[in-house]
Amino acid sequence: MFKSIRESLARTRQSIFGQIVNVLGAGEIDDETWEDVEALLIQADVGVPTTMALVEAMRERVARDGLYRSEQLVQALKDEIRAIITDAPPFELEAPRQLTVAMVVGVNGSGKTTSIGKLAHRYAQAGRKVMLAAGDTFRAAAIDQLQIWGERANVPVIAGQPGSDPAAVTYDGIRAARARGYDLLIVDTAGRLHTKFNLMKELEKVYGVCKKSVHGAPHEVLLVLDAPTG
Question: Where do the domains of the chain lie, and which CATH numbers do they carry?
Answer without folding.
Answer: 2-86 (1.20.120.140), 92-223 (3.40.50.300)
